Amino acid sequence: MSTSSERKILKKEALRGLCFAVFLVAFNLVYGIFAHGVRSIYMQTAFVIPLVGGSLVSLLLFFLPYPNAIVKAVWPMGLATLSVGFLLHGVFDIYGTEEELVNVFFYAGVILLSITGILYIIQLVQSRNKKSKPHP
Question: Where are the domains of the chain?
């Protein structure tokens, strides 16, 4: 379990993810007004990234060990990169063009999130090894 200060931080991060998801829903609705009825699945589902990756993961961390500073710094970068990639892809879809460079956002976001997951797993293994080793 986390300490009370870590719990407050996690609650704040969960709320931040929820607020960003609401912002993306509002952005999609406003952008849809000016898009002349054209829709994009990327724009419509962009809110899922901060909702799941921000809010739900923060709430899940209530039951897991608190991540270290590197993990806490890289995770939001990956979420932001994926969100921007979804928004840009949606804008280009609505505009009616295709841009291959938008895929860089998807790859970079997945790489950042994967690195974060690997670093967190390493942190869990190291903390478990410290607990299992007897002190001389």
Answer: 4-132
